[in-house]
Design brief:
This protein is mainly beta. The chain contains no helices and 35 strands.
């Protein structure tokens, strides 16, 4: 009613809430903060409304850890292996495996494997009677084969095989026959031509030995093998090769023998054969041969004949056929479908020709129909038909 009143207000000032957070992610990862997608190291802040209605501040420190990529080269000796990503690798190459680094981020280790050869040398040495040479950690006085191991520059164990010969002072002559195109290393020279070559070894006081080689070249082999042979399916084919050579055929269950000059073979499909040919001089060559199986059926047959007894075109029958095993049926029909002639045979010579007669009487001039049933090597039949004109 117009009287003064008093309102007492308790005012409380609430402090801003500040939250500080540290977060770590791996390179390539992201984190979602206040409608932002973050992927880089930095300091980020965001103001939000707290439950008391006052603004609050959230501060983020984002650390992005590195994904490590480590390259490494590993040297191995032949025959050794190296474990990469749980697999024992035995071949040279570049391999990669993943691992978790100390910051729990996925990292990659790339390993290049390199293999060094263990050297193996063969040496021929000669000494005079009574002399010695240091092999296998001792002085050797006798002929034989000796082995010494040593560490090569690649740290792989290597070996030398030494063939030791006791040689008397004197002269030795040898005839050496080379294969065409073969070379021969003698007295620190490469022999590529026929001739007489000598080398003198000075092995010690009063110990001189001369070796001479009469080098000759063997003649080229005359194998006379075709690159391809045409055969009928299921028909036996027999090779007939020069018997002055030795033949070693590659393993094949279809061949009747693998070490002869005249193997036989039966096949229904194309077949590749490989044979190694060797002569008495131990020269050899390898030849590949294709057995080309005929699959297309062909018949040679005339389209007219004149059975007038003049000796020219007096009869009608298939003259030749290929790609089939035999003629199972050869039949001739007149215009009413009546069979006027019928025959069969394993070859054209076995087929009885038609002389234009039926039941001993001459047939009328005109067009007749023929049918040829060819038996295939796989047991099926192929029928070929056509017309033939009988002319008198």
């Amino acid at each position: 009613g117009g009287c003064d009143s008093t309102v007492i207000v308790d005012l409380e000032v609430v402090a801003m809430i500040i939250n500080a957070k540290d977060t770590t992610i791996c390179a390539g990862d992201t984190i979602y903060l206040a409608d932002q997608v973050l992927s880089e190291t930095g300091f980020y802040s965001h103001i939000i409304n707290s439950s008391g209605g006052c603004d609050s501040l959230v501060e983020w420190t984002l650390n992005v850890q590195t994904n490590y990529f480590v390259e490494e080269v590993v040297q191995l000796c032949q025959g050794e292996s190296y474990m990469i990503d749980g697999v024992l690798e035995t071949e040279a190459g570049i391999y990669a495996e993943s691992f978790e680094s100390e910051n729990y981020c996925d990292s990659t280790r790339q390993v290049e494997l390199q293999f060094s050869s263990a050297y193996s040398l063969e040496v021929n040495l000669a000494i005079c009677p009574g002399d010695s040479i240091f092999l296998e950690n001792s002085w050797q006085f006798q002929e034989g084969v000796y082995f010494d191991s040593f560490g090569s520059s690649s740290a792989c164990d290597s070996s030398i095989m030494t063939t030791l010969e006791i040689v008397d002072a004197g002269y030795n002559e040898v005839v050496k026959v080379l294969c065409p195109g073969e070379t021969f290393e003698f007295a620190e020279q490469l022999i590529t031509e026929e001739g007489f070559y000598c080398d003198t070894m000075y092995l010690g006081p009063n110990c001189e030995h001369t070796v001479c080689y009469q080098v000759e070249y063997a003649e080229e082999m005359d194998v006379d093998l075709p690159q391809s042979v045409t055969v009928l399916p299921g028909q036996e084919y027999e090779f007939d090769l020069n018997q002055e050579y030795f033949y070693y055929w590659e393993e094949n269950d279809l061949l009747s023998c693998l070490d002869c000059s005249n193997p036989s073979i039966i096949t229904f499909v194309d077949e590749w054969l490989s044979v190694s040919v060797r002569d008495s001089n131990d020269c050899s060559t390898t030849i590949e041969i294709l057995l080309d199986v005929i699959t297309d059926v062909e018949v040679k047959i005339p389209n007219a004949f004149s059975p007038n007894g003049d000796g020219i075109n007096d009869y009608f029958k298939p003259l030749a056929f290929s790609g089939a095993k035999k003629v199972a049926r050869f039949a001739v029909f007149n215009r009413w479908g009546q069979i006027v002639h019928e025959s069969s045979g394993d070859s054209v010579d076995d087929i009885i020709p038609w002389y234009g007669q039926f039941d001993g009487n001459d047939c009328e001039m005109g067009v007749y129909v023929y049918s040829i049933e060819l038996a295939q090597w796989d047991g099926t039949l192929e029928v070929i038909g056509g017309n033939v004109s009988l002319i008198r």
